[in-house]
Inverse folding.
């Protein structure tokens, strides 16, 4: 088991860990502004074209969206367990929990890829292959533009998270994550939680509302 590396610009490991966490919080703040602006634009357009957006939203695949919701909720649990195991010094348990987290993330992307394929088959891809359904009006295409833009950006963030989780798993396997210094893993866990929370908002905006509204 190797000792954590202390970079020369920090006084101690605690200082180093808190700085890394602060840096990620700053990053998350910028991402909240980004996704917040995207959601604000969506709700502005939805308010202006309520009927068109409601009808378009009913063609979204809510069952697949719900499956992905469950996958991410479960992945949040396995990530929390990985951090808890790391603080207890249970290396093999950390590796297994991180492996499960990454696997759940990969399954999410697989389900989302299948959903995209079904969307393409339904001719709901703006610009490339979009056909208005009976009773729909042109603003419906804006709903699907938001859908692909928002979920696509989320998928990119999730893919980055999966890579980070796998990197942490390798470090844990090599004994580079020790109970005295779990900051790198906690920072990755914070990023993973952010990605999960973003999906909760996207799920609520895209899938159920079109079916609940009249």
């Amino acid at each position: 088991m190797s000792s954590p590396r202390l970079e020369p610009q920090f006084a101690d490991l605690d200082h180093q860990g808190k700085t890394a966490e602060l840096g990620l919080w700053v990053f998350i703040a910028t991402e909240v502004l980004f996704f917040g602006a995207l959601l604000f634009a969506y709700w502005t357009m939805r308010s202006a074209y309520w009927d068109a957006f409601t009808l378009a939203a009913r063609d979204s695949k809510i069952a697949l969206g719900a499956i992905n919701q469950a996958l991410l909720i479960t992945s949040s649990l396995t990530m929390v367990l990985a951090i808890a195991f790391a603080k207890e010094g249970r290396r093999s348990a950390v590796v297994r929990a991180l492996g499960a987290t990454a696997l759940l993330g990969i399954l999410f992307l697989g389900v989302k890829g299948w959903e995209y394929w079904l969307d393409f088959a339904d001719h709901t891809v703006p610009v490339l292959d979009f056909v208005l359904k009976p009773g729909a009006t042109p603003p419906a295409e804006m709903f699907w533009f938001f859908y692909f833009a928002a979920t696509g950006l989320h998928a990119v963030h999730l893919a980055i998270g999966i890579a980070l989780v796998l990197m942490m798993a390798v470090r844990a396997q090599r004994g580079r994550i020790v109970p005295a210094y779990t900051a790198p893993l906690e920072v990755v866990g914070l990023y993973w939680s952010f990605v999960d929370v973003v999906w909760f908002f996207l799920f609520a905006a895209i899938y159920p509302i079109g079916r609940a509204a009249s």
Residues 51 and 214 are 8 Å apart (CA to CA). The longest helix spans residues 13-48.
